[in-house]
Automatic annotation (TrEMBL):
Binding site for Mg(2+): 272, 414-415
GO BP annotation list: DNA synthesis involved in double-strand break repair via homologous recombination; error-free translesion synthesis; error-prone translesion synthesis; regulation of double-strand break repair via homologous recombination
Stretches assigned to the UmuC domain: 268-497
EC number of this enzyme: 2.7.7.-
Residue ranges occupied by any BRCT domain in the UniProt entry: 35-121
Cofactor: Mg(2+)
Job of this protein: Deoxycytidyl transferase involved in DNA repair. Transfers a dCMP residue from dCTP to the 3'-end of a DNA primer in a template-dependent reaction. May assist in the first step in the bypass of abasic lesions by the insertion of a nucleotide opposite the lesion. Required for normal induction of mutations by physical and chemical agents.
Protein name per its UniProtKB record: DNA repair protein REV1
Source species: Drosophila grimshawi
Gene label: Dgri\GH15415
Cofactor binding note: Binds 2 magnesium ions.
Amino acid sequence: MADEDHNGFSEWGGYFEAKKSKLEEQFAAASNPFRKSNLFDGISIFVNGLTNPTADELKRIMMVHGGTFHHYERSHTKFIIASNLPDVKVRKMDTSRIIAAQWVVDCVEQNRVLDYKPYLLYTNQKTTQPRLNFGKGKKNDSTLDNSTVAEETELDGILKELQQDVATSPKKHISHINNLSATTTSNHPNSSHSARTAVDPEFLNEFYKNSRLHHIATLGAGFKQYVCELRQAHGNKPFVKRGELRTLLVAGKLLSEDVSTKTPKRYVMHIDMDCFFVSVGLRSHPDLRGLPIAVTHSKGGTGATDVPVHPQANRQVERELFAQRFEQHLHDNVRADKVRYGFQKNMSLSEIASCSYEARAKGIRNGMFVGQALKLCPELKTIPYDFEGYREVAFALYNTVAQYTLNIEAVSCDEMFVDLTDVLQELQVDVMTFVTHLRQEVRDITACPCSAGVADNKLLARMATKLAKPNGQHLLQTEDAANYMATLALDVLPGVGSSITYKLNQAGLSNCADVQQVSLVRLEMLLGKKMAQTLYQNCRGIDPRPLVYEQQRKSISAEVNYGIRFSKYEELEKFLKQLSGEVHSRLIEIKRKAKSITLKLMVRAAEAPVETSKFMGHGICDNQTKSLLLKQSTDDLEFITQNVLKLMKESGFPPNELRGIGIHLSKLDDVVESKKENLIMNMFSKISEKQKDKSINIPIAIPIKEPLDMKAKSDSTNVLSLLKNAATRSKSNPAAAFKIANFFQVTATESSYSSSSPPPPPPMIHVASWADCFLNRSDLQPSTSKAGLARENKRLCRADQIVTKYMEELPQHMHPAIHQYITLNNKQKDVAPTVEQPEKQTNIFVNPNYKSLLATWVKTEAVPKPTDVNLIYLNICDLVLDNQMDKVYEIMKYFCCIVKTKRRNSCCWHMAYNEIESNIQEKVQEILDCHIYIREAIDCCKCQSFRS
DNA sequence: ATCCTCCCCTAC
DNA sequence: TAAGGTAGGGGAGGAT
Ligand SMILES: Nc1ccn([C@H]2C[C@H](O)[C@@H](COP(=O)(O)OP(=O)(O)OP(=O)(O)O)O2)c(=O)n1
Ligand SMILES: [Mg+2]
Ligand SMILES: [Mg+2]
Ligand SMILES: [Mg+2]
């Protein structure tokens, strides 16, 4: 609670504190004196939309009977009370908690907590998981929080702070604000179906929500970022936790005596959670401990051995094709078995994300199909995913380690390398004593076991972890390394998978001992230079790689190879646009720009059956990739989308043959140290820089120091007022107005071309389509024709150059939102030149373009200025007073949406929104004696935790 | 030589 | 039914 004053948070103290205490007081005052029973003790509800009794009434009932009323949905909200909800929204929700208001009434009437199931609104529920939101704070989970140290150290504070702000990938950010005038349209609660194929607009969300691989990838990337931020925030401060541990160890007489004389030795630790998903899952299924368990989407049991299979799917054929194509996989045990048994009739092809060690004893492995696993172990129990839980435990793991050292190389959400040399040096403690303590701490906090290996390089540390698992630790001495390695199979080496193992096997090498006997040259012939070098060293236990603490991202992508079934180009195009939006928002999230766009396609192999064995799977496919080098790096959605569509068209594949689509952005520009000082000023100066190296003579009107002047004058340096001033000023000061109008008219003309109309079609020269090259495999060497195509593309690029230049350059120097806003104001001024404006500034929302303005504000300001928040609030208030409730609703809805999508992790923005919203609610209450129903507020655990 | 594009491979 | 993503390393072969 005391850690809100980092990163400009404190600016928010006032707003935020006010809100917090108000809410708390409200509740405390309302709940205590009037309580009649404890009927709803421990039960919380959130009212979504219009209900009978009303939300207010339900709130009163809950309070009177000891329950909790949530003003917005939280992760731990027990029930959502609703009467009917729009279909679209229902799909995004966990319908198993949505019940009718009547339940509350009936409970009170009978004075007991009734079974809620008869009151479920949606009975054909799907158990979907919320899609990962990395930036969401820890939820108030007792297993995690109760056991953390009572006193909050400084690092602790930073940890908690940063935990909120790390990169995210939330997947449920559309605002749910009920229309004020909502005469709730007729909905069909039971028509709610899951999005089966990518044709359904909800598919992308639904898929990502449920994709384990998406979740672990996102988490992994998040933790790499997290480590960077922790390190940057930490500076040279001491690690408080080290001192505590030292005291503890002194008390227990566990410090090594002679250590001070030892030559400093390097200690690399590798730490990894044991069967991560399973361990997390078992926390809520304690009865299943000790049994063979798997985490999977499939329910398991008999259902999984008698799964419905599409009548036109042919598992036998697919199995054989797979065998032909991926011969090398048949020598990989897991995959070979997957082929041999997995494709048997009616066996579930759902993958096991993680299985318990009891299951492993029966031969079950991570990644195996459920059907096959059930053959190995018919009593295998399955448990569902708990993505939120993985996030929490992963944070706990990282945070625990981070309190001792930040020499951490993040590997994945359940795994990292740590250089312990420093800590050990300071603590003068034996390595394994330290590791024991650390692991115990992780276990205490997470209730999940982990294992750790220590050695003097990463490879051996990994090997040591393998030896240690499960729930153990191991120190691998370098002297023993070569001998130990000799006993190992090849594929246990990191970087050696089924293909390389296969190649080596073909060459007569079947384990590390064999490879140790082989010359470097021979390995090079087999595997290429780099792999040979690595393998040559690794099989001897040598690994010179340093730990990389701050990992710099090199690319970003979004890919879906599941549920891709299109019949028309329009469907495909719609999906491509969605997917472009997805990568784009990820790109924005990391605040970078990309210079290269790659479209990756999975296309049904000619021989492969149209219906895949795995439900909605990609089956056997050929992969194709096509990339485009931009003239300049971009983060413009429209531009990216257009290029993606262009690449797609070039590919020429029929939509119905596609089985997977991915968009990759690479050649990212350098990271900018976010000096969010005054973005708008940067924009102005960028324009003038551009001006210099451009030979076109655009009259530049705003001297760089103009905004500076404004800054000085208008006591607030915020974007909003700057924008407003720029606009107003143009009205009151004709000279300035001329200049500004002049300038923006020029740029606006160019940009309206670029943003509203698609680029002109390229000259119609025959270009061999990408698919042509691919489909007529027999005709041409693909490489030749591809090269030809590439050449062709480049030429076309050059032909478009002049137009393209504008299209690419303009949007990134000045945000279209901003010039549209300003231009519009100026245009209006031109059209109806000017009654002298009174002192009172015009309401921002009078401008038809207010949405852009809002969006720009949210996007450009890392931390919203109180002045701006106030301004927005006052402006909306005006509308309320003016009884323009439709507009108020519209604004709030949009604002909420923007904050949620653009500022997922920024609690100061969440609070800004909440602040405005609650104040507006009050105003509405006061003036109109009614309430704007908001279905879902900003959904962020961190903010919530402040209030509870 | 060195770069680039289009792959393939691996890991979680 | 099922949710087969994502990032990085690196090789082959052509362009420069
Ligand atoms: N094919 C795979 C491999 C892993 N994972 C997920 C689930 C795992 O729990 C998590 C961590 O992967 P690990 O390789 O660390 O495997 P486990 O933690 O499950 O087991 P171990 O005890 O071997 O580390 O990643 C997955 O979804 N699919
Ligand atoms: Mg693990
Ligand atoms: Mg792991
Ligand atoms: Mg391996």
